[in-house]
Amino acid sequence: MMMPPCPPILYSFRRCPYAIRARMALAYSQQTVQLREVVLKNKPTAMLQASQKGTVPVLVLANTSDGNKVIDESLEIMLWALKRHDP
């Protein structure tokens, strides 16, 4: 039996303008993600392993054809989301 694909993980901070615009594009394009709010004083190890920049937003796309893919720029996250579905 095949397991359903895991939705991407979005590391975000509520008041960061870059993270806000990434979340808006994801919502507008109706993309399902696992939202993980980050406390900037205590960044999760998994986020830092995915992106050494240590900034938000970070979108982790698991199980792509070339392994895990990480998008750590808000504009790139927006483009990824809108390429998948732009109403």
Q: Can you describe this structure in just a few lines?
A:
This protein is of the alpha+beta class and 87 residues long. It contains 3 helices and 4 strands.
What does this structure look like?
With 87 residues, the protein is α+β, with helices and mostly antiparallel strands. The chain is built from three helices and four strands. The radius of gyration is 13 Å and the shape is globular. The protein starts with 8 loop residues before the first strand and ends with a helix.
N-to-C span: 33 Å
Radius of gyration from CA coordinates:
13 Å
The low-confidence parts are: none
In round numbers, the mean pLDDT is: 91
The strand count comes to 4
Order of helices and strands: EHEHEEH
Largest sheet, in brief, is: 4 strands, mixed
Give the CA-based shape: globular
Structure class: alpha+beta
- Helix count equals 3
Approximate strand percentage: 15-25%
Strand order of the largest sheet: 2-1-3-4
- The helix content is 25-40%
